[in-house]
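Worked problem 6 (solution included).
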Amino acid sequence: MIDPALAELLLSPWALGVLGLVVGSFLNVVIHRLPLMLERQWWADVVAQLRDRDSFRRTFAAEAPPGLDQAAGALRRTLAALGPLSLTQPGSRCPSCSHRIRWHENIPLLSWLRLRGRCSACGARIAARYPLVELATGALFATLGWRFGAQPGALLYCGFVAALLTLALIDWDTTVLPDAITLPLLWAGLVAAGLGWLPGVAPAASLWGAVAGYLSLWSVYWLFKLTTGKEGMGFGDFKLLAALGAWLGWQAILPIVLMASVLGAVVGLLMKMLGKLREGRFVPFGPFLAGGGLVVLLVGLPVVLGWMGWA
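Solution. The predicted structure is:
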């Protein structure tokens, strides 16, 4: 058994805040590299598909032309020339001069401040987003320590918040919500609730939250597509809302969707006025779903329902 005084110290807001700074540094790596890793895997899948003559025959009722093998070979060689890419390899480098980031240049928040936001080798600017992600993660972890106290559940929610922040920024950058994060997050919420580790969220509320979260946006997607012939959102949004339901319970689904819809509409209108909308003239929905989930978690569902007059 861990000494209660030690647990109180390790799970204090200050300790969790420092942990959040370190985790935030890792999240920066995940946010940048995971989409690139996925894209490489998709191109590798293209190579496999180009070489699958049986699939070509079934799909097109004809033999594959010889040029496909040549294209597959060229693409495979191009992919192989890129070298390894994972969350740990290669080591972090300056994108401008390829200077290898040394350990003392990679201390969360402090190194960016000491270097004044510039590479030590070439002087190129280091985006302020990196320390902001670290600072946001640290602040969120500290808030969770204050909100839930020195209990293991606070660590669980720290993991939940880290995943939400990662998903929000990846979706904002790429309009992709990776299954590598959404699906483990969903199952982790269901298991944690089933084991009684989520304060105030019964196993049944978690299960029905996952079901309601997925089916609600799935229904909206198909209604919109059947009505307009267009896709209004991606399948990752269904999985993210299902994960939020698993962690926060079915009662949180409607408040999260309403908050996300209102905030997303406001941001979309502002971006349209400023000419900042990306190609296709839309904004991703995932960051606003994640934001709604964070609000429910940090202030509590009863407070959110009270804001809406549903308490």
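Discussion: The two ends are 40 Å apart (CA to CA).
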